[in-house]
Design goal:
Blueprint (H helix, E strand, L loop, with lengths): L4 H17 L3 H7 L5 E6 L6 H5 L6 E6 L9 H13 L4 E7 L3 H6 L8 H14 L10 H22 L1 H8 L5 E7 L6 E3 L28
Parallel strand pairs: 1-2, 1-3, 3-4
Antiparallel strand pairs: 4-5
The chain binds cobalt (II) ion (CO).
Length: 219
Amino acid sequence: MIRLKHIFENNRAWAEAMQKEDPEFFHKLAAQQSPEYLWIGCADSRVPANEIMGLMPGEVFVHRNVANIVVHSDLNCLSVIQYAVEVLKVKHIIVCGHYGCGGVTAAMQHKEFGLIDNWLRHLKDIYQRHDPPLDSITDEHDRLNQFCEVNVIEQVRNVCHTTIVQGAWRRGQELAVHGWVYGLTNGLLKDLEVTVTSAAELDSLYRMEPKPKPSITTP
Ligand code: CO
């Protein structure tokens, strides 16, 4: 039986070091988590949310998938957003892509990868719709990195369009949605400065009015 012994050794050493620094650390965390941030990032092993942001366990709620895509029919992602917003009451949702993303690269190509092609279709749709056309960028490296940024901007909008985020804003909950990109080659985050903090900033088609209250008729 393969037991991945070195991982358990690492884990024990880490837990001991954490406990040494703060003997109450795990007790406090076990009792409650109150992160201020929800991170929606790529599943890429080189883009770990906590490490990049210099945050401790308990400080960021995390959802990761291939190419940090937010689809309004993805129950997994929506459930994470709902829990983060409505229960944890995070103040910031960060969509963070990264330059040189393999998922984004694959979406620009014609190779068949199997099931994942259905997921990457969301990216092809973004590529196809983008104006000015991404094809007009002749340098392939620049085109890929531009596409990585465009994808983040699109996913920020998708987060904002959810009933969950719009509902939070309607209730007066403080919530900002940010778009960032991470550089694999320098370890630095770049703010794309597309932060949205209210429904008023959305395209009107996607803005939802409050549900009308059911009228009660007395018999
Ligand atoms: Co990626």
